[in-house]
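Input chain follows. Return C-alpha cells only.
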Amino acid sequence: MHIAKRFGSFFSVGSLGFVVDASTLHLLTIWINLDSYSARLISFSIAVTTTWALNRLLTFRDRRTSNLLIEWLRFVAANSLGFAINFAIYSLAVFLLPTTAYELLLALALGSLAGLFSNFLLTHNFVYQGGTKRDQTSNHVLSTHTPYMNESNKKRNLK
C-alpha cells in the first residue's frame, strides 16, 4: 500500500478512534461525573485499543504479526508519544477554557490533531515495520530495484 493511501486509512481509523474517545470522555465526565483528566486517561485506553484493532485489520493488514499481545504493546508504546503531546494540549485547553462538554471536545480535537503525525510515523516504522511488505496495487513485493534491472529482465535482455 502506498504511504499516502496508508496515511489516509490511518487517518480514517483515527477519526473513528476520535469518536470512541470523545464518546467515552463525554460519558465519563458528563454522566458519571469523573474529572476531565482521569476520564481522558480512560478514554485514551479504550480508543487506542480500538484504533489498534482497526489499523491491524485495515491499514496495516499486510504487515501485521501473529503475536497480538506484543503488537498491541508496541502500538500502545508508539502511540504514547502522540498521547503525551495530545494530553499536554488537552490539559492546557482544559485549564484555559471552561470545562463544558463543547470545550472538552475542542480540547480533545486539538490534542488529537497534534499527536496524529507522530502516531502515524511511529506506528508505520516501529509497530508494523516487519511482516510482508506488499504493494497492494501491483501485488509485487516491494524492492529497491527498478523493474528494468531485476534478474528476469536481465535474462530476457540477454536472449
